Amino acid sequence: MKPPIAVPTSTVARNALVAVAIVAVGAAVYWLADILTPLAMAIFLLIMIDGLKRFIEDRTPVPSHLAGAAALIVVILGFFASIAIIANGALNFFDEASGVTSQMGPRLDQIIGDVSALFGVHTAPTASELIAQLDIRGYLTAFALQAQGAVTGAVFVLIYLAFLLASQAGFKRKLVGMFPERAARSEAAEVFQRVRSGVEGYLWVQTVTGALISAIAWVLMRAVGLQNAEFWTFVIFVVGFIPVLGGAVAGLVPPLFALVQFSTYWQAAVLLVGLQAILFVSGNFIQPRMQGENQNIDPVVVLLSLAFWGKVWGVVGMFLSTPLAVMAMAILAEFRGSRWMAILLSGDGEPYADHPDAPESASSRRRQSPAPDDSRP
Predict the structure, then answer these.
(1) I need a labelling partner for 106 at 20 to 30 A (CA). Which of 55, 81, 128, 236 fits?
(2) With bands split at pLDDT 50, 70 and 90, how would you rate the model's confidence at 359?
């Protein structure tokens, strides 16, 4: 009989401590969601502002303080414009003047009857009978509470963002105080740069591919005559930042509303085929080429991160799930005791992502030629 594998006691204790710490952190982010969610969103906006500022500085002669002000204004206006476009588009869709709500009931009855006929059902229920079984008042109440929470959360996000911007001035002094030695300080700066590059790379890829998908979707929707095409285009762009679920919403929601608007089915079929085709091309050919090593995350980890952060932080957690996974991998890869978790999170077993413009770092050299007897603490 083969003897069991002997595991050092220190390793067992360390892994147990890590497991307990993960459970404790998960419980904390769940119970403190009301506080941490706007803070996480504010940090996300801060990274966007910093990236846009450096983009303006690199490509224009604008001074640094003016570039920072311009980046701040653009991000804040975009933040509020997103909320306004979604709210206004939703109101326009349900407006009686659009003609959609008035014909929704008869059209749903027709669709139910056609689908039932395909399966040999001659007495199909009507839309009114199906809707009567739903708790419409409860759904509307929940939607109103969600809308109120979104407005309140937006206010707290801006408050957190203002304080984060104010605290940036003392960040370098804090870094020196935390890491007095130059080598340790340089390594901490590398971790920060790696996290920032990963998040910015994710934002860049999702923005470009989202704009491409949205442009083609707008052309298709305008070609078939779908109402509120601009609203649905913006929705497709925004949900593109949610992995997995974003593609499902972008590819299925416009065709479903086309079924309600039109008396024939070919418009919905055109939208379904066209959107699924562009999503397939983008997901399998365009995004992998653009991502490179910026998102060296295992697909299973992306899915689990989406489920976890969606559970604890709702929609905001879904938006931030991939950037948070990138941050976690970069930070865990720095420490000997947690590097194994970073390897599991990575897509190819190499949690460090090399950037062509960056000089060779100490962590990169360790990755390329690991030494078993390394005595670095």
Answers:
(1) 236
(2) very low
Cα(284)–Cα(282) distance, integer angstroms: 6
Q: How far is CA 293 from CA 133, 216, 246, 290, in A?
A: 50, 27, 22, 9
pLDDT tens digit sequence for 230-257? 888 988 998 888 887 888 888 888 998 8
What own/partner pairs with CB < 8 Å and gap ≥ 24 does 301-305 have?
A: 301/325, 301/344, 301/345, 302/243, 302/244, 303/243, 303/244
Span 324-357, pLDDT tens digits: 888 888 888 877 777 888 888 887 777 765 444 4
Assigned token pair, 58: 């690199």
Nearest Cα neighbor of 338 from 18, 9, 23 is 18
Please state, for a pLDDT cut of 90, what percent of the chain lies above it. 6
With H, G, I as helix, E, B as strand and everything else as coil, classify residue 252.
helix
Q: Which residues contact 56 (CB under 8 A, 6 or more apart)?
A: 62, 67, 70, 71
Task: Please give the Cα distance from 98 to 105 (Å, whole number).
Answer: 15
The span from the CA of 238 to the CA of 215, in Å, is 13
The owner of tokens 């996974």 is 325
In whole angstroms, what separates CA 168 from the centre of its chain? 25
Cβ burial 154-169 (10 Å sphere, 16+ → b, else e): bebbbebbeebbeeee
Q: Is the pLDDT at 304 greater than 60, yes or no?
A: yes
Give the integer Cα–Cα distance in Å for 339 and 351: 8
DSSP state of 284: I
Q: DSSP letter string over 129-183? A: HHHHTS-HHHHHHHHHHHHHHHHHHHHHHHHHHHHHHHHGGGHHHHHHHH--SHH
Polymer length in residues for the chain: 377
